[in-house]
Structure formats: C-alpha cells, structure tokens
Specification:
This is Trafficking protein particle complex subunit 11 domain-containing protein. InterPro entries: Gryzun, TPC11. It comes from Hortaea werneckii (Black yeast). Pfam families: Foie-gras_1, Gryzun. The chain is of the alpha+beta class and 1217 residues long. It has six domains: 193 residues, Rossmann fold, CATH 3.40.50; 202 residues, no CATH class; 176 residues, Immunoglobulin-like (Sandwich), CATH 2.60.40.10; 113 residues, Immunoglobulins (Immunoglobulin-like); 125 residues, Immunoglobulin-like, CATH 2.60.40; 122 residues, Immunoglobulin-like. Strands 8, 10, 13, 14, 16, 19, 20 and 23 form an eight-stranded mixed beta sheet that branches. It has a five-stranded parallel beta sheet with strand order 3-1-5-6-7, with helices on both faces. Helix 18 runs antiparallel to helix 19. About 2% of the residues have low confidence.
Length: 1217
Amino acid sequence: MEAYPAPYVQHELPLVYLSGLGEQEDSLDTAPLPRQESGSRVTTNAETCTDERAQQLLKELMKHDGSSRAWNSEALPGPTASLHYRMKPISRSFNLPPRKAAPLPQAPSEEGKTTPPRHTELHSTLSPLSPGSPIYPEGVMTPLWFTKHQHSVPSLVIAFFKVHGNDNAARNEQVQTDINAIRGTLGRSGYKTRLSVVLLSDKSILDAPELEEHISAIRRATTMDPKTGLFFMPPMSSPAEIATFVRSLLSTLQPLVVEHYRDLTKHARRKKARGGSASLASSVERGGRSLSASGWNVRYEIKQGVFAESRQEMDVAERHFSAAIEELCSSEGLLETKPSWSSIWNDARLLCDVVALRVVRCQLWVGQTTGAVISWLNYKARTKDLVDRRGMGCSTYGWFAWEARWAEIMGQLIRRASLPAFQPSDEAVPTSAEFSAMRTHLPPEKALATERIAPFEQLHHPGYWFVLAFEATVARRAKALDISEEDRISPDQTPASAVAQRSRNYDTYLAPLPHEEFVLPLEGGHDHHLNILEKLAGEANKEFDARGQHRSAKRIMFELAQELIKATRHSKALDLLVPLWEYASSGDSLWNNVYHPLLQATHECALHASNAGVFLSTAWELLSFEGSQLSRSKKSLTDYIRDQIPTQGKLTTKTNASRHLSPVQISLAFVEKETHVGELVGCQVSLCSQSTLGAAPLIVSRVDVAFTDGRTVSISHEKDASSASARPMITNLPSIAGSETSASVKADLSLLRSETRLFNFFLGFREANVVRIRDATITLDTDAFNLQHTFDEDNLLRSRAVHVGNEEKAEQYMLPWSDTFSVTVLPKPPKLQMAMHGLHRQYYVDERIALEFELKNGEEESINATAIVRQTGKSDSPLSIQWNEQNALSGEVAVGKVERDASRNISINIDAILHPAMLSFEVEVRYYLTSEPDTPLMKVLVTELNISRPFEAKYNFGPLLHSDPWPSYFNLSAQEEEGRAEGLPHRWRLGADLKSNAEDELSIRSADVTVDQVSDSTVCDVAKSDLAKMHALRRNETMPVESEFVTRKASLDDRRPMEVELSLVIKWTRKEGTAETTTRLPVPRLQLPSSEPRVLCTVEDDASEEDEVMLHYHLENPSSHFLTFALTMEASDAFAFSGAKYRALSIAPLSRLRVDYRLVVHDRDEDRSHEDQNSGLWVWPVLQVVDSYYQKTLKVHSGGSRVRVDEKRGLAVQIKA
C-alpha cells in the first residue's frame, strides 16, 4: 500500500480532539493544511492540566485510539459496540480549516466599476468547483480531502479544565469564558463539531460542598448540556477508577460522534441528489471542462462510504464504495470516457484502486473472508480487461508491477485485519495444537457455504498472497529485461521525439519510466527488482514458517536464489542456498523434484563465489546424478576440484548421509545373530559405487566402521597389482581379536562405476552385551582435499543377505533374521554341571522338603565356587530355604575348591508350606577358574515345586446316647467336686470320609480329632480314634474315620448353645520314606444345642430271637420346663411291633425317659433280595414324637450302632441275620 497516498489507504476513524491535557506529536499525521485567512482559530487562556492524574487520564484515553490497532471490530477493549477513535491531544489553541473557499477577485469594468459576479455561491476549498482547488476543474477526489477529515476536522472536542473548591471566582469565571469562546468559534467555523467539557477537581463535592455551586454556575453560564456536554471528575486514587470513568465518558459521547458523521452523510446525499453544483467560473476560464455527473456521483459515493467507515458501519461503507467502482467503470465513467494518456485517467484509475482496497478491507472487517477474495479477483479481472482495451495491454512491466502490488496489498490487508485463525504463535516452536488452530486458509462464510467455491476463492494466509506478488514481480523483471537499450537511455540524452514515443509504448502507471525500470548498465548498479523480490520472499517465508509450512517457506527462498543467480549475484544467492541445502533431506520424497536443481545451483554459486568447502561437498553429491558437468568429465574427482578452484591449502569437509547424498553406499551385516565372549563372529562390509564418473575410478582412502562397544575397524586403501577385471568381488580380511579396541586392515578400495566390493572379516568380543554398528565413515584423502562422509545406522543400506564367494561368482544367502546390524554377545558358556536329586513331581502342604544338590566340575581345571539359593517369581507363599551346611549364611554357601571332574553334594532343606502354590527357586553358582580369577562365570539351576493338598474330607455329624444317668432335678447332689462341670453330658459322633488327592501312595499312620476351640463354660472330651494299623491310601481312594466326643456345660443353669471347633489330624508318610508328616484338616464349626429336647433310638444287642429286635426310644428334656409329647408308632407291612401305638408322656425338667418297642419281621424270605449277608436286614419303623404345646415334630436321631438315618426315608434299624 506504500505506492498510494497515505490518506487514501488510511483507516477511517472518528477524530476526537483532546484539549487541555498536553500536546503530542502524531507520527501518522500528514502535513497540516496551509492556514487561510478564512479559517478559524480556537484560543483559550486556561492553563494545561499536567499533573499525574491528568497524565493517567490521557493515557487511558489514548488506549481507545485505534490508529495502530488491528482493522477489526475486536481490536479494542470494552463492549463490542464501542467505536474506535483517532485521539489527538492538542494544545489550548488550535486551528480549523476554512469551510468555504475565498470569493474570486472581480475584474473592473471599462468605467472602473466592478461587475457583480454571476454566481455568488461559495464551495469547499477542495471542491472541483473552486478554482483554487488541486482538482479544479474536473478532478474527482484529492488526498487532501481525506487528510482534512482524518486530522483537521474533529467530530468531537473534549476540553479539560481545572476547577477549585475555594472561593477563587476569577479562575472559575475564566473557565466559563474559555468554554464560551470554544463554543463560539466552533459555531462560526461552519462545522458541526460537538464540544464536551470535563472539569477536573482536586477535591470531591463531599469534601468541598461549594464545588457544586461553582459547577452549577458554569453550566448556567455556558448553557452546556448536563448529560453530554459537562462532566465532573473528582479525585481518583486508582487507575481502575480512571479507566472506568473514561469508558463511561466515551460511552456517553459515542452517540454525538455517530450523529456528526450521519449529518455529513445526509449533506453528501442531498448534494448528490441535486446532481452537482453550478460552476462559479466561466467556461472560458475553465477551458470548457467540468466534472461530469458520473464523476459527481463517484465523489459523493466515496464521501458517504468514508463517513460510514468513520461510524464503523462497514457493510454500509462497502456498498457505497462498490457503487463508486461501478460508476468509475461504467460506460459514462471517467475510465471509459477519458483517454488513457491523460493524467485524469491515471488519477481515476488510482482512485478506483483505492476504493477497491477499501471494499476488501470492509469485507474483512465484517468477516466476509471469501467475499473479500472474490471481490479481489473480480477487480483484478476488471482491471485487466480495462488495461487490455484502453491501456497498453497486460504484457508490459507496468501491468505486472500493478499485479504484484495488488497481491501484496491483499497480504497487507489480511495482516492488518489480524484474523485470529491467522495469528502466529508467540512461542519460538509452536505446538501441534497451535499449528492446527492457526489455519492456512479459512472456510467460506455461512452466506456462501452452500455455493461451489473454488479453492483459490477461499481466504489464505498472507504468505500465499506474497507468493503471488513474488511471481508477478518475477514476470515484471522478465519484461523489464526485454526493454531495448535505446529506451534505457536517460531522457536527457535522448531526443524529445524518442521520449514521446516511449510514453506510447510503455505503461508507467505507478511504475518507473523505462530508463529507471532497467538502468543501463545494470552490472554493479542498483537493481530495485531484486530488492522487491527479497522483501516479498522474506515476508512469505515468515508467514509460512509461522504455520509450520517449512517446505513452502524454503521453496520461495529457493526461487529467490534462482533470480539472484540470473542477476549474477552468486554470493548473495549462495547465502540463501546453503541453509536450504543443509535443511533439505536427500532421502525425503518431498524434496525429490527440487533437490537436484538445488544442489546444482549451490554448486555453481560456490564456484563463482570461490567457496571451496561447499563446492567440494556439492561436487561429492553430484557424483550421484547423471547429466552434471562432473559426470561428463573424464577427470577424476581430485583433478576436477583442483582445476575448478585452485587453492593454496588443502580442503577439509565433513558431510553426513542423513542430509546429503553419497556416490558410495555402505552395507554391513553380521553373519550370526548370537555369539559368546571369546568367540569370533563374521562381519561383511559392502561398498557399492553409484558414481557417475566416466573412466576414472573413485578411490576411497579409508572406511571406518564404529561399533557401540567403542571399537573401530578401519579398512585402508592399498592398490592391488591385479587389474580391475581380474580381482575378486569378495576380499577376505584378517581376523580381529577381542583385545584390540582399534584395528586397521588394508584392501583395494578403488571402485569403478556401478561396481560392488565385498569385504569379510571376523571379530571377537571380550564383554557380554548387545553390540550394534554405530556408524560408518568414508574418507577420501588426497593432496587437494580431505572429505569424510558419515553414515549413521539409519542411513546404512540394510540387507538380510550375505554373499559367499566361490571360484566363479558370489552366491547370495538370506539370513533368517531382520536386524543384521547387531549381534548379541552372550557370556562365556560355563561347563559346570548341576543337578537336583530327590526331587518329586509333587509335594504337599505341611511336608518338609529335603533335596540333594550336586555340583560337578566340567571345566578343564579346578574351580572355586559359591552357591546362592533364592526364591524366584512372585508368590504369596514365601519359601524358607536353608543349606544344610554349617558355613551357610543367608542362602549363600561357600562350596570351595572343586577339582576337575570332581563332584560336590550339598543338602537343601525347605520348611513346610502351609498353602497350595506353584513355587520355584534357583541355585546360582558363581565360580572362577583357578588360572583366571578375574573372569567370573555363573550358572543357574531353576527348580519348580508343585505344592498341593494331599487330602480332602467330607464330614457327617450326629448325636449319640450317653450311658451315664442324668442328675435328678429334685435331688441334686451338693457334694460335687470343686471345678467339675455340672452340666448334662452330651455324646456326639463325627464321621469323616478321607479322600487322597496325592499322586503318590501315602501311608496313613493315624487320624485323630483334636479340639481347637470351644465356647465359654463348655468342656469337650474327645475319644481316641480306633485306627489300629497303618492304612495305604492311593489317589482318589477313600477311607472312613470315626470319632466320638462328649460335651458338658459347666453349670446346669447355662442354656446357651455350644460352639466347638475341631480338626482332623492325619499323620502320614510317603510309601518309600519314613519321615512322618502331620496334616491338619479343619472341621467346619459345629453349633450344638444344649437346652432343646431330642429323641434318640438305640437297639438292644442281646436279643435272642432271629427275626425280632428291641428298640429303645430315649426322650431327653434338658430344659427347665415340663414337656408333654404325643407318641405314635405307624404300622408297616414289613414288621409287627409290640408296644403302645398312641401314647402321651410328660417329662420333668433335666430328665429323660425310655420307651421300648419290640419289632418282629413278617416274612423274611420275601426280603432276602434286600438283605445284606454281612450287615443283616434293615427295616424302617416310623415313630412320630410331637411336642403337645408347640405342635412341633421332633426328629428321631440314631443313638448308637445298628441304627442309621436316611435323609429321604428316615430312621432304619438293622435286624441281624
């Protein structure tokens, strides 16, 4: 936008004068208008407010100045509806420009009398109707009109005066006088500038009540509006209060400012409706020329647009500016009616450019981003059509200069708009989230979202437009180079006819004349094209880099360097190319199309700039490309460098394969995936020449291969006496022992074009580790230069194959692993043999484990060893492991010296494990050979233990009849032994079916029930089990275990239930062992009633008859109440019974009764099929016992042998065979 007058492109803001706070120079102000006699000057005598509060007030007011703010509606703080202002601090005295031009002087008549003028109406000093105007008589607009409203005609004057709370009436009267003077001068000036006064006081009205009277007097004397004309500012202590006061002040005065520009708009609209004004001067004086009606329409449309822009009604301003463009380009407009060679046509074109710029700015302000681009494109197309029809055409440097300027203006407008999505990050390295938020282009606005919008019609960031300007400038330079030598001669040295001919051949609209566009001679002179290109490329590079578009940023710099090369500015081009060459990655596919031209350009610039280091490095890379000068040469690389850049000293340079190409590629591979310390492993190095040199071979001086263990293997060049065609493809090099940290071997390293050489050698390692190939370096060392090219691991050629040579050719063998750059070096394999004896497949809970660890020396000499045993893995069951040795300490035992082929046994004891688990432990033996005490060796033996439960049991429980008589409730003995339990004895039976889960056969030595815990005031006596002999139990086999116990309460008065916790204790051994193990199986907790009645059934053993049995039913009442029971014996077809069928019994407390029944089997022969010859016949008598009070049926329990209870059929009695 620098090519246009600054007032044309400056953003319109309401001008506000701040009088009384001191004067500040505004760098944006243009030169003031010349003072005219008819102008108005405002002069006051009050002193300027210069105290600290006044300066803080001025600072807050200037925060609302939008002159340097972004061109958008959100650039200032405060409410979104608040205006931006152009705040201008001025002195107490200031000038206003004249409203009307001075009257024309009247020529006297022949008689000496003045002739009255034909027209007496006066117009503005900048009107086309005023003879003194710079655009008189047919101009449309002048930048001075914009300057007038931007800097000289304020919409509002805010005057600041101090008022005092004392009785100093003179000062207060002076304030009244000054206010009236300002009002009077503004009224006489002809402008509708508003005035507001702010009275500053050092005291508040509360502190000085007389202030209220003074302020009222000033208001009455000046007739100022108390709401918008007169404001009082008491003392304020904090900047926040001052800021609030300023916001309130401007919010109140904003309607006045808006109304001022509305009045100006109405005035312009009325004058437009009149169709122009009559001319004051005669047609002879003006030469018969005047502004057309279309020109007047353009003038007033622009004025209305400017006033709307001042009100910040950007949509209204955009409509007026668009209408002005249509008027200028219409069939009756200036651009169509005036000749293209006239200055008026150029002025109209410049004005059209400025109005189009303002249209785009207004659309960006309101967020019509795609609309702004479409307007920019449409105006460019319209201008191109206009220049093609009425100008010099679009093939001149002038057109391309305008095209570049128009694209640059778009980029500058987007920058000044400061769209949030286009703002770069403040950080040096923006994050990925900031990159995504900072877009490269914006989608269409909602109004155009449903239309088909081309990609170039969407708004892109400023870098895109700077690139367009750059490309147009390149085309401009190309056209400038076509200017003939005659037209490049200065006009002072050219005939006038030739100069006139130039104006008809060249478009110089906002462009230099031909002799200035392309100065003769250019060599060593100033080239303004390159300056423009450097500026545009720098701006585009900055925008692209800020958004992470680094390739685009580098691309524009590369194009700039190409233009510098065309201008033979090789040193400057090299400064640009070297960073690009270092940044560009030869292996990046995105740089494939650019890398070769970039490399060639850098090479040529280094040659012309005599940069030997860059020239050597680029020459080395160019060996990989066909078509370069070096590839066509028959010379060697050394001769080429020496001939092109003769230097006194030896060149030295280093390059890396991560960024730069190499005509020699290296591939390395280990032929084995694993090896051991002290053993040799094969390694193959492959050199593949991709050089484009013709007949001359490429001689590599040295190849250095570095490994991660710090070792380096160097292969130095040694010329082979045999010819190149006769030498083998594979060269075997000497082996390199592990003790050598740096080894050097020799081989023929000369490479012909497209030749591959293979080198085999063996390496040994002293330490166990994973060894990788770190990097490889190729060195070319001649008398002219020393070049080192390094290949990192990522840049080496990967190959899963190795070549094995025979007499005729090298055969390729694929390796069965992918990572051929590494080899795993394992520790030296120990020859110590270890074994664990006495280990069973399964161990059991509560079993102690005894093992025998055997250590056998298989080394070639004696050893000194130490054994460590520890648990491995994660488990909730820790192992308690001990060596059965006196010198063992914390799991470690010193084995001592063990001779060759000798053995040593050590016992290991493991305490019993209490829970099933899968456990493991290891025995680590550390030893060293007697001859090598500094070389530790180690071997580990891991042993797993499967711990499980050997048994499981199912329990059955029931009551038994206790044979002792119960004590009488009515005759209790008072002579009981002290401490003896007095409660009723209860006999119980506990049966267990013991099942073996062990894989081995176990021998059961005993199985007894023990008491773990009983409830309070309870005694439990357990009878010893009757297991008489050892019982062998195999897997899944079951054996019965019967036990009895008696419980008794300590007192007869204790009626609480009894709780008993028992365990089944099993002592067993393995079949082949004698060590006894005790396993404890917990019995579920038993709840035993102590005061509930029950019925027990027993059989008399001494019955003499074969088919009959005597049953005894025992009814027990352990409670303290009398109980009555109803007994009913049910009849059966299987037997007959003797006894009462129905009977009622009353039982005293703490007593029991017996009821007898004799049973006789009816027909035994019919039940032979159901008779067990060993156990006899079972019958099922049913006796119902019902509690008469509670109507509860009591269950009949088995009280002894030959009686059992079935859950489904009830009670069964055995009749002997």
